[in-house]
Description:
- With 567 residues, the chain is mainly alpha-helical.
- 72% of the residues lie in helices and 0% in strands.
- The protein contains 17 helices and no strands.
Amino acid sequence: MAYYGECIETVIEQLDKFKPKKDSPEQFLEAASTCLQTLSPQKQAFILEVLSGCLEYRKLLTIVVDAFYMRDGQLCLWSDYNLFQVICYLATFQLEELGFQLFSNIVKSQPADKMHKFLRFFFNPLNLCSWIKDEWSLIYEMAHVKENWTDPLMRWQPEVQELIDQLERVLTNQLPLSKTKAKVTEPKQFNLTVPRPRAIPMPEPVPVVAKPRPVPRATYQSPQEQQVLELTKRRNRLKAEELLLRANLGEMRCAMPRKAPAQGSKKALRLQSPPRICKTLQLLFCRPSDDIPIKLNTAAILREGALYQRQVEKELQRVDKLVDGARDLSEFLEWQRKMQAKDYQEQRTASECRRLQGKLSHEEAVLARQRLLQENKQKADRKKEEQMAELTQQCAARRLQEERSMKELVEQVMEGHRNTQVAQMKLLKRRQQAVQEVREESQELLQRRAQEAREEQTQRCELISQLRALETQPTRKGKLVDLTQIPGYGLEGEMSIVELRERLARLKEAQKREEEEKRDQIIQGKRAKSQELQNTLEQISLCRSAMGRSAALRSVLPCNVFPTPSI
């Protein structure tokens, strides 16, 4: 038994090395024979014979083993796949040659539980005679499968069943032995020293926490510095408003006529005139020195010239208003405020009226919609009743018409049964006439087509003769071109080549003329722009000198001697 077990193990090892997608069976058998040369000739022959058979009938063996793993061998390992293939091959193809005794020795040399499961599955008559036979018949012929494989297996089924019973008895005898051999570990208690009981610790005294200080009131109040700053801001704002009011009152005083006071009555002048702010803000101008040159670009020159022009215009407008008798705007502002309040009140009353009117119109619309819904509902009910009445009338009329049509149809059928022979004779005559007409028409069409074919053939012959005559005539290779000739395709604006060249030359001359004119215009524009910039620079220098002189006079003399100079 150990001898056959070693042989079967060698076959399984070689099958594990075989890869169907890469290796071919012939080359694999040659490589296996070289590897097995160390064995005895008898063992080598048996191994090679079983290995070649497994490779040759691989498809048949795969069908059985795959089905075994799907049904009874779900708990078996996939590493035993080739073992089941070898046993299946020996049982199917080598059982007659080996004999049952040798086959049983080979089976007993393998694990009993695996062989018991597989043999019980494979030699089951239901499996052999049903799906195994059908699957093998898809690869080989049905008669060959039945005669050579399934029928011999069914004949060996009683002996194999005895072998299966023996394996089952071996399994039942082994189970109790395995149970008795197993030793159960008995846990022993550790001999540990018993610890001493711990003493209960004394409770720690609760610490006395000092009484916290109360939160100062200043935390929830704004700081005094902030209050002082707010008071200072308020006072400064009041002073600024007072100064602004005084400035507005004395703004147009130069335009108001008043009597010149006596030289000795300065006190009376102070009492009559309102307080003025004598000290004005002095404008400081930076006098450009001649030593440091300042270069201005075009944008800076134009910007400064526009600024001085706007200042001159504003000063002229201010003088014109003073000459026309401009006054204080307080009365106008008061009147404007009253009129705006009056307009606002009128707008509020008008908006309230509109809101009430909108509310009334909304309620009227709701009532009108309800009335319209009721009217529509009534109209729909009336229309529904009328439609129902019309439908009943139509149904009654349709029934009467159907009864009449049925009666007429019955009468027609009866008349048709009576006159069937006459109708058949008429039908035959009509068909004969139709056949005769079709035959005549077909003959006429054939004659017409033959005539057209003859005419077409004659035309082709004439065209061929004309083409041959044209081919025989001599042709000029060179082509004369008249440049003054118009093509004459009927297009708009057609012209000869000479005229086209002339027009192109004129267009080039016109383009050159336009370019020269544009160049002259650009030069003139640059000159005008440079002259304008020169004039602006002269005006700026004059304005700067005037403002410098006025600033110098204001700094030397007191402020009430000269008025503010105008630019």
